[in-house]
């Protein structure tokens, strides 16, 4: 059965960005957000988007409902809480959680939804470059207990992403997501250390990132978030530090559950929680660099790395 109508819950920065690809791909969409202004703004841009009515029956005509919410416990409340949407969904409807959730919370929710005749698929998001989510070039990591459910939602996922990986059973997508963010977080700490130590030595941090981007130290932060927002001191990637701390907590849980001993999650959490002190709860994750500057007793040179310091020397 082809999917014609898609529900979408959660129109924050990431949610609205991902959801925007669906009406542009021809899907009829029913949207909901905790902020009515976000709903109205999103619906005003597309003819085939309607705002969900109040109550659990708002998504009764949807073949697929996508959630993009802060974490799995919020997803459970939205789906199975007192006013949860599960009560109004038709049998066989597939709920796709694209949030950064614990794989264990996802597996538990999947069992409860199966008892109601509903199917849960996890499909969290990552991206190679900032704003890939705006243009359908994100990456989705999918967990699904059946190939049938995966095949049915695949056209919807492909409308939102350039790469779609079926990682395994339910929860596998969220496991991959947390390990992806854990790897990224480790590189953020190493890069922050390198920039302040480099400047203390006498290196130019803008040039350092240009060098890293044509060397083995290249990573998402060197090519995107630190280059576009941290060193220019814009701090506007749209990804909150609090969410990154939450994601590392999920990684720590996964390591403990699979009985793998590593000190790195606690070290990352130590640095990131220290960085949160004195910042707003909604602070962009690139603002954590301020903590490194404070500990180093310096202010990093402001600039936008763009490769110009190395391209001039190309043969």
From TrEMBL:
<dbReference type="InterPro" id="IPR008927">
    <property type="entry name" value="6-PGluconate_DH-like_C_sf"/>
</dbReference>
<dbReference type="InterPro" id="IPR006115">
    <property type="entry name" value="6PGDH_NADP-bd"/>
</dbReference>
<dbReference type="InterPro" id="IPR013328">
    <property type="entry name" value="6PGD_dom2"/>
</dbReference>
<dbReference type="GO" id="GO:0051287">
    <property type="term" value="F:NAD binding"/>
</dbReference>
<keyword id="KW-0560">Oxidoreductase</keyword>
<dbReference type="Pfam" id="PF14833">
    <property type="entry name" value="NAD_binding_11"/>
</dbReference>
<dbReference type="InterPro" id="IPR036291">
    <property type="entry name" value="NAD(P)-bd_dom_sf"/>
</dbReference>
<dbReference type="GO" id="GO:0008442">
    <property type="term" value="F:3-hydroxyisobutyrate dehydrogenase activity"/>
</dbReference>
<comment type="pathway">
    <text>Amino-acid degradation; L-valine degradation.</text>
</comment>
<dbReference type="InterPro" id="IPR015815">
    <property type="entry name" value="HIBADH-related"/>
</dbReference>
<dbReference type="GO" id="GO:0050661">
    <property type="term" value="F:NADP binding"/>
</dbReference>
<feature type="domain" description="6-phosphogluconate dehydrogenase NADP-binding">
    <location>
        <begin position="5"/>
        <end position="168"/>
    </location>
</feature>
<protein>
    <recommendedName>
        <fullName>3-hydroxyisobutyrate dehydrogenase</fullName>
        <ecNumber>1.1.1.31</ecNumber>
    </recommendedName>
</protein>
<keyword id="KW-0101">Branched-chain amino acid catabolism</keyword>
<feature type="active site">
    <location>
        <position position="177"/>
    </location>
</feature>
<keyword id="KW-0520">NAD</keyword>
<dbReference type="Pfam" id="PF03446">
    <property type="entry name" value="NAD_binding_2"/>
</dbReference>
<dbReference type="InterPro" id="IPR029154">
    <property type="entry name" value="HIBADH-like_NADP-bd"/>
</dbReference>
<dbReference type="GO" id="GO:0009083">
    <property type="term" value="P:branched-chain amino acid catabolic process"/>
</dbReference>
<feature type="domain" description="3-hydroxyisobutyrate dehydrogenase-like NAD-binding">
    <location>
        <begin position="171"/>
        <end position="291"/>
    </location>
</feature>
<comment type="similarity">
    <text>Belongs to the HIBADH-related family. 3-hydroxyisobutyrate dehydrogenase subfamily.</text>
</comment>
């Amino acid at each position: 059965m082809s999917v014609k109508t898609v529900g979408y819950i959660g129109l924050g920065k990431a949610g609205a960005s991902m959801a925007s690809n669906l009406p542009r791909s021809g899907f009829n969409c029913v949207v909901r957000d905790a902020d009515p202004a976000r709903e109205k703004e999103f619906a005003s841009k597309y003819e085939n988007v309607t705002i969900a009515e109040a109550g659990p029956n708002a998504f009764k005509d949807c073949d697929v409902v996508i959630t993009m919410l802060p974490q799995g416990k919020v997803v459970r409340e939205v789906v199975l809480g007192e006013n949860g949407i599960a009560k109004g969904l038709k049998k066989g409807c597939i709920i796709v959680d694209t949030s950064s959730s614990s794989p264990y919370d996802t597996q538990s929710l999947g069992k409860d939804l199966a008892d109601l005749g509903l199917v849960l698929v996890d499909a969290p998001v990552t991206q190679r470059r900032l704003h890939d989510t705006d243009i359908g070039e994100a990456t989705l990591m999918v967990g699904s207990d059946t190939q049938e459910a995966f095949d049915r939602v695949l056209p919807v996922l492909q409308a939102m992403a350039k790469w779609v990986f079926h990682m395994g059973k339910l929860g596998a997508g969220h496991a991959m997501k947390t390990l992806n963010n854990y790897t990224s977080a480790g590189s953020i700490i190493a890069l922050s250390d390198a920039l302040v130590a480099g400047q203390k030595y006498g290196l130019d941090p803008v040039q350092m990132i240009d060098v890293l981007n044509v060397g083995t130290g290249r990573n998402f932060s060197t090519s995107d978030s630190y280059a576009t927002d941290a060193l220019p001191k814009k701090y506007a990637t749209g990804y909150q530090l609090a969410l990154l701390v939450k994601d590392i907590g999920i990684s720590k849980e996964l390591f403990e559950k699979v009985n793998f001993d590593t000190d790195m999650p606690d070290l990352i959490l130590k640095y990131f929680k220290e960085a949160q002190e004195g910042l707003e709860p909604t602070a962009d994750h690139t603002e954590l660099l301020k903590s490194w500057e404070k500990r180093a007793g310096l202010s990093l040179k402001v600039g936008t790395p763009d490769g110009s310091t190395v391209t001039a020397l190309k043969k």
